Amino acid sequence: MALKRESARPIEAIEADLLLLLLRERYGYDFSGYDRASLIRRLRQLVDTFQIGSLVELLPALLHDEQVAQTVINTLSVPVSEFFRDPPVWKYLREQVMPELDSFPRINIWQVGCGYGQESYSLAILLHECGLSFKARLITTDINADLLRIARRGRWLANQFAQWRANYLAAGGRASLDDYFDAPGHDGDETMAIRAEILQAIEFVEHNLVTDDAFLETQLLICRNVLIYFGAALQARALDLFERSLQRGGFLVLGSTESILDRERTWVPLQPELRVFRKSMAGSK
């Protein structure tokens, strides 16, 4: 009996699904909700990285070698970010959350998933403008050591800033975003570097939500567009971790499509559409 090839799915798509299934079942990372076109582009990068002919050749090593798995996860989980992305979230933080944080004698902030650092530096700028830098400790973490190294540099191409300037103003910025950067050099350098006082306000730390535990008591925890990569069990583990890390009355900010998994008794919604929650005063310490 002849096979009907015209209705068959492309081999690349089948191989991609097999790889994603292996990542989910073996390591707990669920990338199924990720933009498909972008995901396929990143999977093709893996073929070049490992110098193989097709994705299926990667599966045995991915199954048994955790270093290979980490390379794959790093490749697929590089976030797309920008300064003050989703301005209404940042405006709410500025107007509602920061005044509440000012009531704490010391403020510990944990930002999960640093990406290339734009969100981390947005937080540092916000703390500066709200007059809270002097009593705040801002720690940003990621599983990807390469991203942490890039983020620590605090340098981006000047031609990326048009959207970021608009975001900053829409988020209630009180000055000009450019005030926090050194202008491009005159020697052909087309990048803008974050000023030293903002750069030095952040601690960059390698941390894995899947294997590591809480490491400080926080009053604000921001984890946007990280949990979307996790299956239900890992999402639950991360939320348990956040509960242990956040002080009673502390604030949790998630990404626009992320859920607290029916934990309303722990996380009181403040702005559900912005995914801003407050830890119940009746919750654990």
TrEMBL record:
Reported EC number(s) for this entry are: 2.1.1.80
Q: Which GO terms describe its biological process?
A: methylation
What positions belong to coiled-coil segments?
none
PROSITE patterns xref list: CHER (PS50123)
SUPFAM superfamilies for the chain: Chemotaxis receptor methyltransferase CheR, N-terminal domain, S-adenosyl-L-methionine-dependent methyltransferases
Keyword Flavoprotein recorded: no
Translocase recorded as keyword = no
This protein's source sits in the domain of life called: Bacteria
Assigned keywords, A-Z: Methyltransferase, Transferase
GO MF term list = protein-glutamate O-methyltransferase activity
Describe the location of the CheR-type methyltransferase domain by residue ranges. Answer: 22-260
What InterPro entries does the database record attribute to this sequence?
Answer: Bact_Chemotaxis_MeTrfase, CheR_C, CheR_MeTrfase, CheR_N, SAM-dependent_MTases_sf
Q: What is this protein called?
A: Chemotaxis protein methyltransferase
Q: Which organism is it from?
A: Candidatus Accumulibacter cognatus
Gene for this chain? cheR_2
